[in-house]
Specification:
Order of helices and strands: EEHHHHHHHHHHHHHH
Subcellular location: Cell membrane
Membrane topology: Multi-pass membrane protein
GO molecular function: transmembrane transporter activity
CATH superfamily of the largest domain: MFS general substrate transporter like domains
Region (Disordered): 1-24
Distance between the termini: 36 Å
Transmembrane segments: 58-79, 85-107, 119-138, 144-167, 179-204, 210-229, 255-274, 280-307, 319-337, 343-364, 384-406, 412-432
Number of helices: 14
Shape: globular
CATH class of the largest domain: Mainly Alpha
Radius of gyration: 21 Å
Strand content: under 5%
């Protein structure tokens, strides 16, 4: 997930709100973020002396933190066997990650401007390590919730500072290269996490402990490289607003809601592959290998980032609504797999949903950025905050609904209902969106 600052924490200069181009993925803007809310009386920060080592170290940190946050994806079936909780509790454990991520995202963005990227990145590493320790030694369900919240805070804090730091530490100040690096490393971490956790749990002892121990070891190089990172915080900077309230100006609300809801549907489908589908693979398809269970979730992320890289060739509205359509087709594909169980078909469905997510996210990000830049440049940061809030709510809510439905009605009936509802919502929103796009000059 998730996963990669984009709300208020990406800044190279102080002063009145301006828009600066940047690029992110899985919760990060591709084109523009506002300047920070740090005190305007401070002098601009000096651009830090940097090397490619710093740049690559930041990429490693971003990838590793996303990897850690996605380790549990392949392990939920083992957790259910160990602790005996229901599918509803399983999806709540998955979704509570967002409860840590969103506040951290909104809080640590401005703080990284005031206190420096390095400080916030160290906080992110600390929370990631804390989450790993909690999950490694969890002996009750409540610890799974706490560990997931800690990982959510870690990813939120890292997202709030790492992308700005990548821009500042790209040796040639090539913003496009920095943005592409953020896209690829975030996707890489999100894709490897389920495979990493599944492989260690499948083939090595202590399946619910060892994945997090190995992950904690991987955090050590990230910690060392972050400690060696130059900081660019302005001296004497004082934040005037440490928590950005999402806000969408009236002139752009229509395009905002159509775009945001389209991506929320895509995130919801991806969330199913990260929370429910790995267990479904075991129960419906009879596949017990945890690498395969994690592989379906990994495939959605790989397809998503591939689609995002190709989406620049399409108009924003075309990318958005083709993506929503692909997600709808993928949801119908889940319905087919439910009646005709096939691992190969499930992999195709995962790729289609992942590609739909990538296309819709890239198109929606460009549409919202363009609308905010043209009609509400002073509210760009609040608009993006609202956009990603809707995105992450979309990630969590369908998974919770799936857990409730599976607990009450059983896996088969619940998946039929979810597939039909998801496909219908995609169709309705797609019709509304394409009609609006055709009316535009």
């Amino acid at each position: 997930m998730y996963s990669s600052s984009h709300l208020a924490g990406s800044r190279l200069t102080t002063g009145p709100p301006n828009i600066r181009r940047t690029s992110h993925v899985f919760g990060q803007p591709e084109e523009a973020t506002p300047t920070s809310t740090a005190h305007a009386d401070t002098a601009p920060p000096a651009i830090p002396r940097t090397t490619s080592r710093h740049f690559h170290g930041l990429n490693y940190l971003l990838a590793v933190l996303l990897l850690g946050a996605n380790i549990p994806t392949a392990l939920y079936g083992l957790y259910r066997s160990e602790f005996g909780f229901t599918p509803m509790v399983q999806t709540l454990i998955f979704a509570v990650y967002v409860a840590g991520l969103l506040p951290a995202l909104l809080f640590f963005g401005p703080l990284s401007d005031a206190l420096g990227r390095r400080f916030v990145l160290l906080v992110a590493i600390a929370f990631s390590f804390l989450g790993a320790v909690i999950l490694a030694f969890a002996d009750a369900t409540v610890w799974l919730f706490l560990g997931r919240i800690a990982h959510g805070v870690a990813v939120g804090a890292c997202s709030a500072a790492a992308s700005a730091a990548l821009l500042e530490h790209e040796p040639s100040r090539n913003f496009r290269r920095a943005g592409l690096a953020a896209t690829l490393t975030t996707a890489l971490g999100a894709a490897i996490g389920p495979l990493f956790g599944g492989a260690i749990a499948q083939y090595l002892p202590h399946p619910l402990t060892l994945p997090y121990v190995v992950f904690a070891v991987l955090l050590v190089p990230a910690l060392i490289m972050t400690l060696l990172l130059p900081t660019s915080a302005p001296r004497g900077a004082r934040p005037t607003q440490l928590f950005q309230i999402p806000h969408v100006p009236a002139p752009i609300r229509r395009v905002f809601w159509l775009s945001s809801l389209g991506v929320a549907l895509a995130w919801g489908a991806v969330g199913l592959f990260q929370s429910v589908v790995p267990t479904w693979i075991v129960s419906l398809l009879g596949v017990s290998n945890l690498v395969v269970a994690g592989g379906a979730a990994a495939l959605t992320m790989i397809a998503s980032v591939t689609a995002q890289l190709l989406a620049n060739r399409l108009a924003a509205s075309t990318s958005l609504w083709w993506g929503v359509g692909a997600v709808g087709v993928g949801m119908l594909g889940l319905l087919v797999v439910d009646f005709l169980p096939s691992l190969a078909l499930l992999c195709v469905v995962a790729a289609v949903i992942g590609a739909g997510h990538g296309l819709s996210f890239a198109g929606a990000m460009r549409a919202v950025n363009a609308a905010a830049t043209e009609h509400a440049p002073d509210a760009h940061g609040g608009t993006l905050a609202a956009f990603f809030t809707v995105n992450y709510v979309g990630l969590a809510v369908p998974s919770i609904c799936a857990g409730i439905a599976i607990t009450v009605q059983g896996m088969h009936v619940a998946l039929v209902e979810l597939s039909i509802v998801g496909a219908v919502l995609c169709a309705v929103l797609g019709v509304l969106g394409t009609r609006r796009a055709r009316r535009q000059p």
